[in-house]
């Protein structure tokens, strides 16, 4: 294999200096001259008819410049499942009825936030409360209130996957077990709240929006649908983003209402959520009821799996239907499952809706599958690592009609883990346990429910006369480091330094379409587009160099270290700078530009490549209090060829933190549709002192579809934390759980149950 | 070989299980109303299919479709 | 009724009139345009807004602007020496101690206060001092490592200066 100059090296974040000096500008920091401040009036009812809205008093308040209600909007509906118009269910402001606590019913623009907030208090809304439904299992009953009248039994989306012969396989199994889980939601809790600044140009009828978003393109589409405008008349710009984690994919009311208010007032309008709004009125992880049945041979080989999931969708669709789809897929990973059946249903309920969150479809399902597998291994007397080993996928593994896994290092990951654990944790204290969980995730999705006619990713490279490069890409860096990866890939192809590249980012008017930062898609998909764009330029440079050399066509040329030379005789060649100058000058001044794009083809229905691995958690349980102490974590990871080891480690660390939070402390508490812990005081994130050290071991593979063999590194490791933690507790004290947040009272209860069982068994 | 047509739309398939899968995947009123006239509840089928193992919902529906779905050549 | 506020920010003298209910974070961001200081919660529970007041780490969202009258405030914008980054800033970059960067200015200011007081902290001491500084991106370990790295750099710097 050739030696890379940039790929695989620990390259510092290209936004580093901006971010440590406070110079990085986020949408949150932006203002425009003459700007107004917007605020949204939100429903206090989970389900109610809107009888009337009276804004007279509020209008009179000095400083109030505009107030709009549902009837003032163009009435456009939008959503991310644009292939299915009935699933485009979001509106700017509720008109007939409200469907969750926090749904906006009116929007105000005023000269200050204070005035806008006072105006909200003066708006009179008369509601007629309707019976509401919060539990997905209640929602599907025939007599349940309907959240959307056209969706009977509140079924929002369904998914069935089946291969092999499940019923026959279960008959052949030596061991069968069924487990049921209730898996809770989780909040993204990005440090930057949702906010948007909209500026409508009266002269041209065009709109510009700066927003904290993961996908400028999705937002452009959402705004076009909502405002009934042409896509091309809307320009979305994504400045630095203070975290997304799946919560900033949907177009949300703040952007749409800022745009509507700007259109109405002719002035720029900014809407910023406060932290409470962020908790009650932005998307969160999909909670679900999950039943899983597994059939194994005595030796631990998986023969069949059957999985049932009913998710709590909340009031609208978001990316929740995608979650349902992915859940049915990733609960099989990373094991060979010859016979499989999945039924998933997403229900509408009267709560803030659930959508995508880091590792969506995998985090909750991995919890169920991996805790169940440990119980099965225990019953069969097989070592937890051994049972995983026996079933691990191998390169080229295919699930008929669904997915094919090309590069696949899971076996090696498990073996490395076995070695490392033995070496590192030879002895355990009393009530201390080690838990394992495997994980896998996609490198971008293949599905196109957004219905884009464009390539999934595009990029443009322009080389200037002095050899410096302008790289145009819509790959969304929301903190994960894709800007650095983008520059590295471009630099590698052109044989230059990362510092030679200036990035032009996240602006729908000047960058080629990219679907955005979700499903771990930027490295593989946008990376391929950037690579193709840079290669187009490289080809031009090589042909100029070849002409100058007058060499036989069979000789290969290399572009590296700012030189272009013969591979077999490196001394014969030219400086990169000279060739760039010649390429432009001798071609009638034609700009040196390369355009690249990427869309996966013939790669199944899920993803072109999968990152995967295994995690171990060592934890100690206090039998008296039920408190769990996280002690140590090991992650063995196959993300193909790592592009940037610094950034990849950052992703694993951050993902692990979120995964452990899902298992230890993060829980959205709800009472009749009201979220009762909407603050950082009451919603507990993992903190400095909770966080155990993480050892990361890399198992390099090469994926033929990835740029330089790279694949996903951002999300897979969010999945195993909770499962590995629960398994550690299981091995420490024998307690089993059917939910994920292991608060002390739950741990205590599970210990008591286990003791009872043991006594009865004696 | 005879094929089955969905009694509520134009879907044609050779297998009643497959037709049942199609049927439960439809969220419109037409399919649900037809079920009601045959004494089956959509909610019940969903509950079977979504919470119990063994394809109970599809099997019940497939049985019904075997009897009721029009055949086409 | 507005009241007079005289204080120093990053070495500059300021004299302004503010409403008594105005928070320090509001004056810094909205009046002085120092947007490196972030604001991320309404409950004083995330520490993203941390600045230094007379050398101590303070949450600028939890203190009235008038409370810093006559005092010296330092924000992230004052950390670098012109174009030359502070060792903490460089260590944060070298150790990938931020991702989205939204919590970073608060982390840096708290870390500076910590190292001013304890130039050679252990990882546990760092965790205790920094606990409460929420970061949703990094998982904290790389921040702790960066702070230790910066401590080493600062000590080396001091030794060099002392040797001169
Ligand atoms: S902004 Fe959260 S503590 Fe100040
Ligand atoms: S770097 Fe994003 S919150 Fe800390
Ligand atoms: Zn039909």
Please tell me about this protein's structure.
The complex is a heterotrimer of chains A (762), B (73) and C (164). Chain A has 3 domains: 151 residues, Aldehyde Oxidoreductase, domain 4 (2-Layer Sandwich); 192 residues, Alpha-Beta Complex (Aldehyde Oxidoreductase, domain 3), CATH 3.90.1170.50; 230 residues, 2-Layer Sandwich (Aldehyde Oxidoreductase, domain 4), CATH 3.30.365.10. Chain A has 18 helices and 32 strands. In chain A, helix 14 packs across helix 15 and helix 16 crosses helix 17. With 762 residues, chain A is α+β, with helices and mostly antiparallel strands. Chain B is globular. Chain B is built from 4 helices and 3 strands; from the N terminus they run ββααααβ. Chain B has one domain. In chain B, 38% of the residues are buried. The mean pLDDT of chain C is 97. A 5-stranded mixed β-sheet of chain C has the order 2-1-5-3-4, covered by helices on one side. In chain C, helix 2 packs across helix 5. The chains are: A alpha+beta (762), B mainly alpha (73), C alpha+beta (164). Chains in contact: A-B, A-C. The structure holds FE2/S2 (inorganic) cluster (2 copies) and zinc ion (ZN). One FE2/S2 (inorganic) cluster binds next to loops of chain C.
Intertermini distance of chain C: 54 Å
**How many DSSP-defined strands of chain C?**
5
Share of helix of chain A, binned: 25-40%
Give the total of domains of chain C.
2
Structural class of chain C: alpha+beta
Following the backbone from N to C, one meets helices and strands of chain C in this order, namely EEHEEEHHHH
Biggest sheet character of chain A: 7 strands, mixed
Ligand names: FE2/S2 (inorganic) cluster, zinc ion
Number of strands of chain A: 32
Strand proportion of chain A: 25-35%
Task: Look up the CATH topology of the largest domain in chain C.
Answer: Ubiquitin-like (UB roll)
- In the CATH hierarchy, the third-tier topology of the largest domain in chain A is known as Aldehyde Oxidoreductase, domain 4
Placed side by side, the strands forming the largest sheet of chain C appear as 2-1-5-3-4
Task: Give the class-level CATH name of the largest domain in chain C.
Answer: Alpha Beta
The CATH architecture classification of the largest domain in chain C is Roll
